[in-house]
Amino acid sequence: MSIGYTNSPPGLDEKNKSLIQLLKFPFQKLGGLLITEDKGKVQRLFLIEDQRKVQGILERHPLLIHLLLEAHSAIEKFFPDSQLTLNAITDPEASSYKFYKSNDNEELNISISTHLNPREAIKVLEQFYDDWWSSNSRKAKGKISIGLEFV
């Protein structure tokens, strides 16, 4: 005879089930507040050229918000005192590809404004890619790109 359970592990009485439900509710509310708070941090840390487009992408892909905050910290270690710009980019041809869904032709681009000479800046960017971005880029699911802008 097999015994299965659907919503709760075995051994939980009704009192414990109720307690778990009470704990889940505030956490869900708190999660929404954290996302809102993190959106505000993104707006403070990055120069955003088109707020409406960037906000739209972040609303459709809220998990990118935390990754943007992590990326900002990591980039600062490699490019201290550089201005980071966040842009929404749309590939108009991407929507015609069969494997794209609607709005999947959008991504966010982090542009690192640097005073380094181009050769040195590219070396530093390659080091950043090797040390941090290569192990974190999968989290972006193709929705974030990072490049240089020379000033």
Structure description:
- This protein is of the alpha/beta class.
- It has one domain.
- The chain is 54% helix and 17% strand.
- The protein has four helices and four strands; from the N terminus they run αβααββαβ.
- It has helices at residues 14-45, 51-60, 63-78, 118-140, and strands at 47-48, 83-90, 106-114, 144-150.
- It has a four-stranded mixed β-sheet with strand order 1-2-3-4.
- α4 links the parallel β3 and β4.
- α1 (14-45) packs across α3 (63-78) and α3 (63-78) runs antiparallel to α4.
- The longest helix is centred in the N-terminal third of the chain and has 32 residues, at 14-45.
- The radius of gyration is 21 Å and the shape is globular.
- The relative contact order is 0.13.
- The model is unreliable at 1-6 and 25-34 (pLDDT under 50).
Order of helices and strands: HEHHEEHE
Mean pLDDT: 81
Number of strands: 4
Give the amount of beta strand, in percent.
Answer: 15-25%
Number of domain units: 1
Termini separation: 72 Å
Structural class label: alpha/beta
Which strand order does the major sheet show? Answer: 1-2-3-4
> Please, what is the oligomeric state?
single chain
> Per the principal axes of the C-alpha atoms, what is the gross shape?
globular
